[in-house]
Amino acid sequence: MKRIIDKINGMSGQYHPHDIFHDWVNMTAIMISNSINYDQELENNYLLIAKRYSSDKLIEISKLSGLLVELMNQDVKDYLGAIYMSLCASSNKTGQFFTPFHICEILAETSLSNYDGEILKINEPSCGAGANILAAAKALNKKGFNYQDKMDVIAQDLDNKCVYMCYVQLSIAGINAKVIQGNTLKDEVNKVLYTPMYVLKGGFNER
């Protein structure tokens, strides 16, 4: 994770580190989503972001995704939330503070203490970067279950940045999920992103 933070800080100059962070996450999310459910509007957004960077910096940004995959292969955690906080992208003005992952782990292990292998349906109305969902996946692993076979997730957030962060992490972790941008309290759905595992589980056939 330190390598990702160092790379982002090393690329800063014209852009603030948290701008680079969000551009990286957005491009990664769009790349994953459009590989399974093409959307021209998302593609246009991707190209608009990419135009801000030189080809050399785009290569460096792509390497960040590789490092994130390596991290997720080692252990399931909310890396993007932690990186976001480390880069001081959160502030009192936005009111965004991501719950430390160890707290999410405690909550998940307590809630799933009696879990016995049924399909776990999770509806997270304010998902942030997906920490609670990732903690649930890790708790299932600790109990000897393959979370990729046992989880069915709907994650939602009003903040577009959180939606992309959550989507990237759930996609890389291989979690069956729909990630929705919209106000949960108003039953608002502006955009839906489907993880690759959702497609593999036949989710498109149920839409």
Number of strands: 4
Low-confidence region ranges? 90-94
The main β sheet shows up as: 4 strands, mixed
Radius of gyration: 17 Å
Task: Record the strand order, biggest sheet.
Answer: 1-2-3-4
- Going by helix content, strand content and strand pairing, the class is alpha/beta
Q: What is the N-to-C succession of helices and strands? A: HHHHHHEHHEHEEH
What integer is the average pLDDT?
Answer: 93
Count of DSSP-assigned helices: 10
Shape: globular
**Percent of residues in β-strands:** 5-15%
Fraction of residues in helix = 55-70%
Amino-to-carboxy terminus distance: 37 Å
Overview of this structure, please?
By secondary structure, the chain is α/β, with parallel strands linked by helices. Helix content is 56%, strand content 10%. The protein contains ten helices and four strands. The chain has helices spanning 2-11, 17-36, 40-50, 55-74, 79-86, 101-111, 131-142, 147-150, 160-173, 196-200; strands at 120-124, 151-157, 177-181, 191-194. The chain has a four-stranded mixed beta sheet. Helix 1 runs antiparallel to helix 4 (55-74) and helix 2 (17-36) packs antiparallel against helix 3 (40-50). The chain is globular and about 50 Å long. The model is unreliable at 90-94 (pLDDT under 50).
